[in-house]
Every structure is written in structure tokens, then in C-alpha cells.
Amino acid sequence: MSQTALANPGAVVIDKAATASQNLNVQVNITYVGKNNGWAMVPFERHMGLIFFQAVINGKPANVVLDNGFSHSVLSAEFARSIGVETEDLAMPFQTGTANAPVKLARGITLEIPHQLQSSTAMGVLDLAAMAGHLGRPVDAVLGGDLLGLMALGIFNQNHRLAFVPSGAINPKAGAHSRQFPLINRDEVAAELNGKPVRLQVDLGSNQAVTLSDKAWHRIFKDDSKALPSVTVRAEGAELPARYLPDNRLAFSGFQAEGVPVVTSGPLPGDREGLLGQAVLSKAEVVLDIPAKTMTFVRVEPATPPAAP
Fold first, then answer.
1. Do domains 6-172 and 178-298 have the same CATH topology?
2. 143, 286, 270, 271: which is closest to 202 by C-alpha?
3. Alpha-carbon distance 222 to 9, whole Å?
4. Are 90 and 105 in contact (CB under 8 A)?
5. H helix intervals, the chain
6. Whole-number Cα distances in Å, 57 to 34, 122, 263
7. CATH code linked to domain 178-298
8. Where are the domains of the chain?
9. In angstroms, rounded to a whole number, what is the distance separating the alpha carbons of residues 90 and 2?
10. How far is CA 286 from the centre of its chain?
11. Predicted pLDDT of residue 4
12. How far apart are CA 49 and CA 207, in angstroms?
């Protein structure tokens, strides 16, 4: 049973322009479905650690991945062609969780998450074939940070359900074992790794526990001679040699975890120091409320055993 309570979202319309840092003249309109108008949780499934759910884009069903590490929501080039949208070139790249990627822009996109919300906006268009090939299933779109940054997202891992609601609409129930963490720099937590400070972006599109930039890696691990070889695959398809060290101590705002693996595969976009991925986030119910600058973990309680016959 979920340990969180949802306030009635009502029928809310939000009109917000993209932030100046995104350098796009894009208007976002979001209409939320009220609880009295058929609101219901959205089922999701995990594949290779990532969250997939079903949406409808310009009237066509779409397989969507959650990834706020993408600075903007994107359509796959193949899906964009299938719905016949026109695209325009952009002079600036979009950020994925681990790199910058050249994209085109498609305007007049309607995204419907059934029983939750409908939005009209512009979305990037990016070749996601390599990403889909690596994941072994179609990826029609990525719901990115531009939209997730306007709402509260509830990830109920025990029942595999999602809630996309206005900021502040999800709160732990009285008596639930929960802990709220402040977010800095939009969607980062001020963490410590083996006692050393590091900023970690909460990255829904990473299936790792912790990923560090090479600069942060060398600062935290002065001696990495015991690092093991690995390979990472970026959303744009690049396969990069990586290294990882198991058995690290992670802490932020009272949360602590031992035995945490840490990986690096080179620099991250901008001044990003690291990523906090799904290998950690999947262990609890998570409420990510970027507008409120908070993330909440709610401990998943074991199911009550049936009474003896």
C-alpha cells in the first residue's frame, strides 16, 4: 500500500515559458486531470533499470522513458516522421544526462499522459535508435527536465505506478517513514561520497547508483588503481570505456548507504559533478518536486502476511 497521499490536483492549467538558460522561445501549457474527472495512477515498467510508461503524442500511442537528465523532452526521429511533424534546425545542442547532443525542434506537440495531464509544447527530435537498440525495446520519446521541472512526480516503486501532479500535491501520509531532502541547482543533492562533498544530479535516466565526472572522480579517489573496467552507453549511442569502484559510502541530508558502486566514463555536461541514478532511487517510493526544491523518500513497507486460515 502506498505511504503517500495525493491532494486533489483539480483541473489546473499552467502556462510557463522555458527558462532563460534553455535559450528557447517555447511556451508550455499543462492541463492536469482532476480527481473528480477520472484521474488515476499511470502504470510503468522497469527495463534495465529505467522507467517506461505509455503516453499519447499527437494522437499516437508512444513508449516514453523518464529522464530529467535530458534538458528538454525529445521525440525519436522515427516517431516524429510517423506523426508527420515539421522540424527546424537549432543552433544549440540539448543536454542528455552525460553529453550534449545535436537536435532539431518540432513545435505544436500535444503530449497526453492518460488520466493525468495533457500538455502542448515543442519537443526536440533526436535519433534514439542506438538508445532503443541498447535497451532492447522501442523508445518513441523521452520526458525530460523541461516538463518534469514544472510539476511533482511520484514514483511508487512497490506498485509500479506514476503520478504527474502540480507541485505540492503529493505528501507522505501521517506515520509514514519518510525523509525529505532539499534540492540545489534545480535537481541536485549536496552529497558526500566516502566523506568528501560532491553535487549529484538526481538522474531518472541513469541506471547506475552514482556516476562521477572524471574531475570529481580524481578528486574523490586519489588512488583508483583498484578500479575495474566497464562500458557505458550514452543516449546518443556512443559506447565509452568506463571504470568503477564498488563498496563506497554515500550520504546526503541524513540518508546513508554503504556498498554503493561508483562509475566514471569521462566529463559530464557543464559543471556537473555527478549523477544519482535509479540503482538508488528504485529502493524507495520517491517524490521528486523540482519546483518545490525537494525530493522525498518514503520507505516501502513489506506486505502484510495473510492471516492464518
1. yes
2. 286
3. 49
4. yes
5. 77-82, 129-135, 145-148, 214-220, 278-281
6. 20, 12, 35
7. 2.40.70.10
8. 6-172, 178-298
9. 43
10. 11
11. 54
12. 5
CA distances from 279 to 133, 202, 203, 261 (A): 21, 11, 11, 9
Question: Which of 211, 277, 205 minimizes the C-alpha distance to 245?
Answer: 211
The closest of 95, 57, 92 to 76, measured between CA atoms, is 57
Rama region for 175: left / alpha / beta (φ>0; ψ in -120 to 50; rest)? left
pLDDT in tens, 272-304: 999 999 999 999 999 999 999 999 999 866 544
Span 6-172: which CATH code? Answer: 2.40.70.10
Distance CA 6, CA 286 (A): 13
CA of residue 234 relative to chain centroid, distance: 15
DSSP type of residue 245: E
The pLDDT of residue 20: 28
Q: Place 259 in a pLDDT band, splitting at 50, 70 and 90.
A: very high
For 104-138, b/e burial (b = at least 16 CB within 10 A) is bbbeebebbbeebbbbebbbbbbbbebbbeebeee
Q: What does the alpha-carbon distance between residue 128 and residue 278 come to, in Å, rounded to a whole number?
A: 20
Report phi then psi at 130, rounded to 5: -65, -40
- For 309, counting Cβ atoms within 10 Å of its Cβ (0-12 exposed, 13-18 middle, 19+ buried), the class is exposed
Contact present, 111 and 121 (Cβ < 8 Å): yes
